[in-house]
Design brief:
Length: about 375
């Protein structure tokens, strides 16, 4: 071995052992910069007349809340009505009941005729899984707008009157002869009566009202403070942002009646990121959460695929789906990115229902890519 080689080796070993050499010290992780995301949201609410306020929160699987911000007339602690962004939380409750074999006789894939005490007029093979994947065959929500007269016998689901059980009996036993129905699990028809029936199944099998079950299975173990399920769908323009304005809790609408805050919804998203854990509390199984994300209806040219509560956005280059969405009629959107291991929700309040898709569409097409870039 040459003298020259030994000298070089000695220098290299000295450099590697030098505790002051920053090249060999652990570098601090640089936190994501959400400046561009904040700027987008601030500009959106400043320029879109239908959306005077907007807020959002980003949650990481391991790091928890990474960022929270509000603009316009929304504050970080504002209470908002979620419309269909209620769907994933509602299915989460159903799956928690499904997991509780010790106390609850309920299986998500068993016919609802096994649980409901009425003689129904729909396919007896319908399961709760069919109800919340929009594949029950019961005419869906679009008929409320396209064929309101034919859909009128089922309107109790949108009114803050009576009880969920009384309304569910009407929905289950009253046919809609002017509308097309199909056998269970043969066609996708979004929303409506099938979702309200899923709430009734939860109450009957769980032995409490929908809100009591929510608090027992989700709210208390996850430390939620304000989230409740009501029925303001016919009165949404009158919403004043106070919890006392939530009406219809006795006839709670599971597909679109939830009231929540950023902090509460962030905890729900963390539950989905952490395989059913809220902190140290095991709320449900990882398998049940994954079951919600299985594609039941495949994507088409003008639509995403659908699981249970989640829309599935197929990646452009093909491969497994990693982006799951839960948008609502008032513009709010929740999403879960299983590849980046984060989730987020944007709150908007377009309670007239005339422009909600403008807000949710802008979030999906413009805002989510900005958040992704910040995390990448």
């Amino acid at each position: 071995m040459s003298k020259y080689f030994l000298i070089v080796l000695s220098v290299l070993l000295t450099a590697c052992s030098d505790g002051n050499d920053s090249r060999f010290q652990a570098q601090p992780e640089i936190p994501p910069d959400f400046t561009e995301a904040d700027a987008w949201m601030e500009n959106f609410v400043a320029t879109e007349e239908a959306f005077p306020g907007g807020s959002y929160v980003v949650v990481d699987r391991e790091g928890g809340v990474l960022h929270k911000a509000a603009f316009g007339n929304l504050e970080e602690d504002s209470l908002v009505l979620l419309a269909s962004t209620s769907k994933v939380p509602s299915v989460t409750l159903l799956m928690a009941l499904h997991d509780d074999d010790d106390n609850v006789n309920f299986e998500i894939d068993e016919p609802i005729a096994s649980y409901l005490p009425w003689q129904g007029v729909w396919d007896p093979a319908i399961t709760t899984e069919h109800l919340v994947s929009n594949r029950s065959g019961i005419p869906g929500l679009a008929n409320l707008f396209l064929r309101p007269d034919d859909y009128a016998p089922h309107l109790c689901q949108f009114l803050p009157l009576g009880t969920l059980q009384a309304c569910a009996e009407t929905l289950y036993t009253t046919p809609l002869p002017g509308l097309v129905s199909t056998p269970a699990n043969t066609a996708f028809d979004y929303g409506g009566s099938q979702w309200h029936l899923s709430g009734a199944v939860a109450e009957i099998t769980g032995g409490g009202t929908l809100n009591q079950l929510w608090d027992q299975y989700i709210g208390a173990p996850c430390g939620l403070e304000v989230t409740q399920i009501g029925n303001n769908l016919s009165l949404a323009p009158l919403w004043d942002g106070n919890a006392e304005s939530l009406v219809g809790q006795d006839n709670a609408n599971s597909e679109g009646g939830m009231m929540s805050s950023l902090d509460d919804y962030a905890k729900l998203l963390s539950l989905h990121l952490n395989d059913g854990l809220c902190g140290d509390n095991r709320v449900m199984s990882a398998d049940s959460l994954a079951f919600m994300r299985i594609e039941r209806t495949t994507a088409e040219a003008d639509s995403w695929g659908y699981g249970m509560g989640w829309w599935l956005v197929e990646p452009d280059g093909g491969g497994p789906t990693t982006l799951f969405l839960d948008p609502g009629f008032y513009g709010s959107v929740a999403w879960l990115d299983t590849e980046r291991e984060y989730a987020a929700v944007v709150f908007f309040e377009e309670y007239s229902g005339e422009s909600g898709s403008v807000g949710s569409g802008a979030v999906v097409e413009q805002f989510i890519p900005i958040v992704d870039t910040a995390l990448d």
